[in-house]
Amino acid sequence: MRIISGLYKGRRITAPKKLPVRPTTDMAKEALFNILNNRYYFNDISVLDLFSGTGNICYEFASRGTEQILAVDDNYGCIKFVNQTAESFEMPINTVKSDVYKFLEQTKKKYTIIFADPPYDFDLDAFSKIPELVFKNELLEDEGLLIVEHSKHTDLSGLEHYSQSKNYGGNAFSFFEKY
């Protein structure tokens, strides 16, 4: 995986093969950040990365100047890798090893962007818990955005607060916003 823009543009990051991850493709990541670039100043936002895996999305935000980034994953190896990578690049990424749903129930902090990349084989109920908890617990700032990455074969358009989806290859991003 590589960082596609910003201070660390072009840097390659190689995650250990034993991690249970599926990093967002460069094509999908570039398209997503083009959308976000037209909406936000990256140095003015806070980001929560759920099911962070390798930290791929965190590194992209950090490279573009975001200084408030929290990565949450329940896999110790993933958290360790994100910590090591963030430290080696001197990136302002904090981590929490936690079940994502428990974290969403307990946190009180609000974020500008919440990005979730759960396993693609989740059923609709597991996917629906993410926006449900984010909006029930009011975790987004006023102009905030929840982005859920999933397979293009998964349809989240029936979930509350859904605004749109964008497909890139086999990947899709569904966007959720406050009404």
Structure report:
This is RsmD family RNA methyltransferase. GO terms for molecular function: methyltransferase activity. Keywords: Methyltransferase, Transferase. InterPro entries: DNA_methylase_N6_adenine_CS (IPR002052), RNA_MeTrfase_RsmD (IPR004398), SAM-dependent_MTases_sf (IPR029063). This protein is an alpha/beta fold and 179 residues long. Helix content is 30%, strand content 26%. It has helices spanning 26-37, 56-63, 76-89, 100-106, 124-136; strands spanning 46-50, 68-73, 93-97, 111-116, 140-151, 162-168, 171-176. The chain has a seven-stranded mixed β-sheet, sandwiched between helices. β1, α2 and β2 (68-73) form a beta-alpha-beta unit. The protein is globular. The termini are far apart. The mean pLDDT is 94.
Brief overview:
The chain is an alpha/beta fold and 179 residues long.
